Amino acid sequence: MKMPTAHRIALLFNGNKIYDRDIIAGIAAYLNTTRVSWDLFLEEDFRCRLPGIERWQGDGIIADFDDPAVCAALANSHLPVVAVGGSYALDSGYPAGIPYVATDNFKIVKLAYDHLVEAGLMRFACFSLPEADVNRWAQERETAFCTLMERDHMRADVYRGVATSAPSWDEAVEQQIAWLNSLEKPVGIIAVSDARARQLLQACMHAGIAVPEQVALIGIDNDPLARMLTRIPLSSVIQGAEEMGRTAAHLLHQMLNGARLADTRILVPPAGLNVLASTRHQPFQHPQVMQARHFIRQYACQGIKTEQVADYVGVSRSTLEAHFRHELGRSVHDEILHFKLDAAKTLLTREPGQVADVAVRCGFTTVQYMHAVFKRELGCTPREFQLRSRSPQAASP
């Protein structure tokens, strides 16, 4: 049997990171399941060394383009190159003329966000990294978080902090604690990496902030080392890094056989979630009920109906009603009404406006309907509730 032609391939990755190691594992998996014969050039200590790479006499390169130094070193390479890195919201973020396999940053952040929503949380924040060329992937995850917050009409609270090092460690922890204390609790926090999540988890423990009761925290990478270094097991998004490696190897294999794949872009979604103690905020309630309540919290006063809530969750009305009856002992309509009533009570207590204005702002179809709800649920009219709630203030000197 004729053996396939052997090619010399360089892998330019920082194997000290779990993400890069998983990509390398995906490349290895591709080689083990095909008849491809590659001699791999990979530094023994797993660090990516670039000096002299332009003079390397090989056949192809797969490289981590999240590192701007790698992009610059390979900009004029005469060899076939496949880039691997994070996705970008703007096309200008991608290198020109090079096939690119990306981890889908938006889907990664959305998966983490949806998980926190299912945990019953209604406030969210993002713990990122200082803006820098080497942290472009972190800024893209910030952008994804802010996009989701804007979509759901919520405030995007993003904290970058400082780059941690031995001299700045104490200062970094103090600043993280100050930020954590400034957040309204409970809050779900998405960290742009497991390393960043681990730091914040330690800050929570220093400050006596309960995880996940006050802060539910999720990272990205599913790094086993980060889990071992934390007392509270850390939830994390599992990136599709092995699939990225397999895909990159397949593209380079095609290029070595003459395929022209310039500007090909493939986005690989996350592989799933590893849900551990750091985000088990309300594990006893059904996730679809949590999603529905999250939607109701935002839009109850805009006149939403049960059908719209079911559409948002992606289940039938009857299924959602059954979950609500089982978990909360009331219907979806009653839950919407509950949030409307709470909003009306808040406005009547804090603002001197007319009852009719409150009815409109809280989504009641008529003043008479709000009147009937107050009588049924609280045993008084909206005006009586308003006067009663303000009576202590009126009696004060």
TrEMBL record:
SUPFAM superfamilies given in the database record: Homeodomain-like (SSF46689), Periplasmic binding protein-like I (SSF53822)
Taxonomy, superkingdom: Bacteria
Any one GO molecular-function label of the UniProt entry: DNA-binding transcription factor activity
Name of the featured protein: LacI family transcriptional regulator
UniProtKB keywords: DNA-binding, Transcription, Transcription regulation
Species assigned in the record: Janthinobacterium psychrotolerans
Signal peptide location: none
PROSITE patterns: HTH_ARAC_FAMILY_2
Annotated HTH araC/xylS-type domain residues: 290-388
